[in-house]
Design goal:
With 297 residues, the protein is of the alpha/beta class. The chain folds into 2 domains: 168 residues, Vaccinia Virus protein VP39 (Rossmann fold); 40 residues, no CATH class. 30% of the residues lie in helices and 25% in strands. It contains 10 helices and 11 strands. Helix 4 links the parallel strand 2 and strand 3. Helix 1 crosses helix 8 and helix 8 runs antiparallel to helix 10.
């Protein structure tokens, strides 16, 4: 249970869901095409939030099932996209069965996951030859005014790269990466929403949040752009990797001859339909039933 005095940043977005939807950028269509493909396929979205990425996926014709741990975020997604299936759930315990999706996609949320548990679950729900697609928007702080904004916000998005985590998991093929540049138009209203939607701001006391909002508004007004807005540049980083074949679970019953009558041996592993059983394990009967082999082939 989250301590009210020390709120969990990963679960801080529900209280600012409206600001998140108004203030956060979308994702470039070219990036999503590269990640998921142009042919319609079945997509599971983890950490879907208010549906920023979902809208692009649906626009490309994909069949999307959206999940997020925060119902307030999903309420906005469902209001915008009433035909999209959506349910609350976490990446560490995905509320679906095995081998159902061509692509699992994660936008702006992978860094919040417990990666050991989440990657095993992602491997479980992907079909053979399915892939994981991760995408992250990062402000381009090479530009001086964007760097100043970043200092005001107090948290820089740069440096995120899931490649070492995916490589170390042993569950995915070599990671491919691509970057796409795009711009978000922000005005004096949406730039305040952008700030208020940041987890490091949303977890502050109300007085501190208000102070930060005023600082950013003064920053915007100082540029004198008024109703014309500002073009906030982003680098959209995208990664994709194909899932490797899962550990095999055998369901056959071996028969061993005895002096009396044939008796079935205990199967190598018993399959369950829960969402938390991975990594899958098999027992090695030659070395004793207590020896477990984790097989990520």
């Amino acid at each position: 249970m989250t301590d009210p005095a020390n709120p969990d940043p990963a679960r801080s977005f529900g209280g600012v869901a409206d600001s998140y939807d108004r203030g956060r950028p979308s994702y470039p269509v070219d990036a999503v095409k590269w990640l998921v493909g142009e042919e319609p396929c079945s997509v599971l979205e983890l950490g879907a939030g208010t549906g920023k990425l979902t809208e692009v996926l649906v626009g490309l014709g994909h069949d999307v099932f959206a999940t997020d741990p925060d119902d307030a975020m999903l309420d906005i997604l469902s209001e915008k996209l009433p035909d999209v299936r959506a349910t609350s759930g976490t990446a560490e315990q995905i509320p679906i069965g095995d081998s159902l999706y061509d692509v699992v996609v994660v936008g702006q949320a992978f860094h919040w996951f417990d990666h050991g548990k989440a990657l095993a679950e992602i491997g479980r729900v992907l079909r053979t030859d399915g892939r994981l697609a991760v995408v992250q928007n990062e402000r381009d702080e090479r530009i001086p005014w964007v760097r100043k904004l970043g200092k005001l916000i107090g948290k820089h998005d740069g440096g995120f790269d899931p490649t070492p985590i995916l490589d170390d998991s042993g569950l995915f093929s070599a990671v491919e990466a691509q970057a796409f540049r795009h711009w978000q138009v922000v005005d004096r209203h949406s730039i305040q929403d952008l700030v208020q939607s940041r987890s490091n701001i949303a977890t502050l006391e109300p007085e501190a949040q208000e102070q930060k909002r005023r600082e950013v508004l003064a920053f915007y007004n100082g540029y004198g752009r008024g109703m014309d807005g500002m073009q906030l540049p982003y680098n959209c980083h995208a990664w994709r990797a194909q899932v490797l074949p899962h550990a095999q679970i055998k369901h056959t019953v071996e028969v061993v001859e005895t002096d009396e009558e044939a008796e079935p041996k205990v199967p190598l592993a018993k399959r369950t339909d829960t969402a938390v059983r991975l990594p899958r394990v098999i027992t090695d009967p030659e070395n004793g039933d207590d020896d477990l082999l984790i097989d990520f082939r």
